[in-house]
Every structure is written in structure tokens, then in C-alpha cells.
Amino acid sequence: MNTIIHRSDTRGDANHGWLHSKHTFSFANYHNPERMNFGVLRVLNDDTVSESRGFGSHPHRDMEIVSIPLEGDLKHEDNMGNKTIIREGDIQVMSAGTGVVHSEFNNNPDQPVKFLQIWIIPNKQNVEPRYDQISLKDIAKENEFYQVLSPNKDDQGVWAHQDAWFHIGEFTKGNSDDYKIKKEGNGVYAFILEGDIEIDGEKLSKRDGMGIWNTDGFTLKATEDARVLLMEVPMQFKS
């Protein structure tokens, strides 16, 4: 098993007043040649947006973009005709493909919105753009990982143009679960949303990240109540 640890306080820090963003990987003005990506996981931004502020209309292409609100409500609009609110407990995916234009705003006038923005390099380019979001409340489980994203349209959760599987686990102190790699050659990036956990003897706390590869699986144990996002992705780009 190979691992790499990214502690919360070593991430890139961009504070624009209305936006405070922590970058696990190089993004915008934060450039770290040793942190460009984890396999096809290219962006993991931990964003806090002030009341009624947000990102105006801007374009994307050839990227799978996943948003997971952690607190508050995020308003989304795009040139595909989607106008929706993404709330805590939801997950959103957007295949930018041949090109999309969208905006994201804090829908709350009295509190910040906190959300993860995740970019995955797709295994297909120039696909037809698409948008989807679901609530996770009906599929959430306690003390075990549950799938929230996969490559398959008919699987649980949303889907993406990539051999990637995302799982979330919500654990009470002392509980554990095993995770098995879905596809040979993939790795897993574990991101601790809340609490304290342990993987392979490594202790991780809130907003720490750990990349794991060259293994068939691993065991995660909650040393305090914890919530964890696992992102399994190919470790090599498709040529």
C-alpha cells in the first residue's frame, strides 16, 4: 500500500472576502507542483461563500464537476436551462463536455454556504453536457460507507464519465468499515469532513486528506464521531 497525507493546514488558502477557499490541489493562484492532482482527481476545493454572494456565469468544458453542500443552500443556474437549489444532504454532478456556462450563488441571505467543489478529468471528451442532482437522505446509512457516485447510470447515486466511485461514511466513535477497491489500478482519496479517524495506523482529523493506492482495500476506524468522503479514481489519465 502506498499513501500520501495532506494535512488540513497545508492546503492552499485563498481569501477573497466573500469567498474563502481551501485548495487541496493546485488551483487558480495556488500552485504547488507536488500537489497537482491525485490520479484523475484534479480539484478538491473546500469553499465558504458569504451571504447572497457567489460565482457569476462562467464556462467549463471537458470536466466532470461534482458539488457537495456541507452547510446551507447553493443556487445553481446554467445554459442548459437548469435552475435549482442544492442543499446540505444533496450531491450534484455536471458533465461540462463540449461546454457549459453556469453560475453558483449562496441562496441564504443570513448565513454562509459551505460546499466542496470537485473536478474529475473524464475518460471521454466532447460529450453532450448534462446536469443531475439527488438527495442522499434516502440512501444514507450509519456506520458503513454508502455509494453516492459511480460510472454507471443505473447504480445508486449520480454518475460520471469516469471509472470513479464516491462513498460517504458517517460513523460513531469506535465503529469501522472495510473499503474494497472497485477497479484494479484505482486509488482512493479519503477526505475527512468531520471528526477523527484512523486508516492503516495513520490518524486523520477534520479536513485532512489521505491518498491510498497499490492496494486491494483498507479499513477505516472512527476514533471520534466522524463523516468521511472516499473518492476512488483511476491513478493514470486515459491517453
From TrEMBL:
Residue stretches making up the Pirin N-terminal domain: 13-120
Domain Quercetin 2,3-dioxygenase C-terminal cupin per the UniProt entry, residue ranges: 148-233
UniProt cofactor note: Binds 1 Fe cation per subunit.
Protein keywords: Iron, Metal-binding
Top-level lineage group: Bacteria
InterPro entries in UniProt: Pirin, Pirin_N_dom, Quercetinase_C, RmlC-like_jellyroll, RmlC_Cupin_sf
A GO term, aspect molecular function: metal ion binding
Cofactor(s) the protein requires to work: Fe cation
Pfam families cross-referenced by the UniProt entry: Pirin (PF02678), Pirin_C_2 (PF17954)
Residues engaged in binding Fe cation: 58, 60, 102, 104
Family: Belongs to the pirin family.
Name by which UniProt lists this protein: Pirin family protein
Lineage: Bacteria, Pseudomonadati, Bacteroidota, Flavobacteriia, Flavobacteriales
